[in-house]
Amino acid sequence: xxxxxxxxxxxxxxxxxxxxxxxxxxxxxxxxxxxxxxxxxxxxxxxxxxxxxxxxxxxxxxxxxxxxxxxxxxxxxxxxxxxxxxxxxxxxxxxxxxxxxxxxxxxxxxxxxxxxxxxxxxxxxxxxxxxxxxxxxxxxxxxxxxxxxxxxxxxxxxxxxxxxxxxxxxxxxxxxxxxxxxxxxxxxxxxxxxxxxxxxxxxxxxxxxxxxxxxxxxxxxxxxxxxxxxxxxxxxxxxxx
Length: 241
Prior knowledge:
The protein has helices at residues 2-39, 47-58, 63-74, 106-119, 150-159, 181-190, 216-227, and strands spanning 83-90, 96-103, 123-124, 134-143, 164-168, 171-177, 194-204, 208-210, 231-236, 238-240. The protein folds into 3 domains: 2-74, Orthogonal Bundle (Arc Repressor Mutant, subunit A); 83-132 and 206-240, 2-Layer Sandwich (Alpha-Beta Plaits), CATH 3.30.70; 134-204, Alpha-Beta Plaits. It is 45% helix and 26% strand. It is of the alpha+beta class.
């Protein structure tokens, strides 16, 4: 029985890992497909698609799956029609939440999102109910291939007009205004840095501070939203203290 139990546990863990991997692939395929549909299937001319493909490769997605997703998005193969929608709401303790989804059935998705909010003591709001609490910024991930160091990267970033810079593992996260993202990226690239990705992300204008022992339901709400197959990005103004 001990051997059987061990085998059952191994199968359970493998099943959970496969399920998690399947969810990741589903989200990546949606992002690739809609990026290709919106801005074309050429990687060199579509930074959003290039980032999506790089993410897929980093998660070991087979090349044929990536290729099919691009072709479906570009219209070269028949496929599901996806649309992007942003939902807004409040979690427990008045924490503002923005959810960007990619879905083929908005009625199903909004019902699922509303149910998740209700389950954990939050409420789904109208468009504009929390978006005013956030600001869109340019987000650059930069690699210092020549190992010039933080000071050199910082000086280069200042000259390029960035708003903030942070070191993260072997990369640098650089924030810009949404208007200057492309120009800043080009300036840094000309200075010899590798631009791993450029994107727009929402940042809270101020944080809602919550005690750790009061944040359980809120964390469960955010985790459940993040695990939904249709949710592509999730933002909140939560700061746990």
